[in-house]
Write a structure and sequence with these properties.
Layout (H helix, E strand, L loop, with lengths): L1 H16 L2 E6 L9 E3 L9 E10 L7 H15 L3 E22 L7 H10 L4 E22 L5
Parallel strand pairs: 2-4
Antiparallel strand pairs: 1-3, 3-5, 4-5
């Protein structure tokens, strides 16, 4: 029983870390090889766009390379012959901040003086606030299918 629960927990954790793919478009029989393009001018064959996808980093973050690999896997499943990555971005989802304060209590060893210092802000002290952005990496891509050449 414990092994089953542990396996489920590890599976959930692994999937939460992996990038997710959102796809809209047509699907064909799976392909074994997918060509990767960064610019449409590099494609030397006639093609049609069969779908659009966004690859989004997982909960704990994924690199652009990891997202790219996941997009290529998805393209193979959808039967694409190629992937055109046309945009990458880092979205800001929110901001976190924390504040730390410190007071110099060596002014007096008497509690009444310490309390007065805190409540009137006349003591020597400082506060430090640290902020950081919560972000996710996103790749945008098109899936393409090569057109058959007519003889």
């Amino acid at each position: 029983m414990k092994k089953t629960i542990m396996a489920i927990a590890l599976s959930i954790l692994f999937n939460a870390c992996a990038p997710t793919i959102q796809y809209i478009g047509k699907s064909y029989n799976p392909t074994a090889n997918v060509d990767l393009y960064m610019d449409t001018h590099d494609i030397k064959k006639d093609y049609e766009v069969i779908g659009k996808t966004d690859g989004i980093s997982g909960v704990f973050g994924s690199t652009f390379e990891e997202i790219q690999s996941k997009i290529i896997e998805e393209a193979k499943k959808r039967g694409a012959d190629g992937v055109i990555i046309y945009n990458m971005e880092q979205r800001v989802l929110g901001t976190t901040s924390s504040t730390a304060a410190s007071w110099n209590t060596s002014v007096s060893n008497h509690r009444q003086w310490y309390d007065k210092m805190l409540f009137t802000n006349k003591g020597s002290g400082f506060s430090n606030t640290t902020s950081s952005n919560i972000t996710e990496n996103v790749l945008h891509a098109d899936f393409i299918k090569y057109l058959q050449q007519k003889s």
